[in-house]
Amino acid sequence: MKYMMFVCTDTAPDTDTADWPDINVWVAENDARGRRLDGDQLAPVSAATTVRVRNGELLVSDGPFAETKEVIVGYDVLECADLDEAIEVARAHPMARAGRLELRPFPAPAA
Questions:
Q1: Cβ–Cβ < 8 Å for 87, 54
Q2: How far apart are CA 49 and CA 54, in angstroms?
Q3: Any coiled-coil ranges, and where (predicted)?
Q4: Is the pLDDT assigned to residue 103 strictly greater than 70?
Q5: What structural domains does the chain harbor?
Q6: d(CA 15, CA 67)
Q7: Fewer Cβ close by (within 10 Å): the C or N end of the chain?
């Protein structure tokens, strides 16, 4: 099953003083196992553009909404047997401690 893993910042990162996992090791391991299909960092939020349509009017603004405290800084597309495996993959990602990781399954293909 495919999962989109959003890599996000967090206003309350982990305060544990143990060594953090190395992102290059995490990428290499999951690429080698075929669990990471794609992934990358994103440009900073200052490069973001928000697009909305309200009452037929196009509204375009720079950056995310002002009230946003956490932002998406990257993504990974995972191929895992199930949600439990996707959680284990996310758990080992360094941003599980520095930020937060959101997992969302891709919908099953239409028959």
A1: no
A2: 16
A3: none
A4: yes
A5: 2-105 (3.30.70.1060)
A6: 25
A7: C
> Across the strands, what pairs with 78?
3, 36
Give the model's pLDDT for residue 56: 94
Rounded distance, CA 108 to CA 100, Å? 25
HEC string of the chain equals: CEEEEEEEECCCCCCCCCCCCCHHHHHHHHHHCCCEEEEEECCCHHHCEEEEEECCEEEEEECCCCCCCCCEEEEEEEECCCHHHHHHHHHCCCHHHHEEEEEEECCCCCC
CA distance 39 to 78: 9
| 106: nearest Cα among 8, 25, 17, 1 | 1
Residue with the two structure tokens 């143990």: 18
CA 25 to chain centre: 17
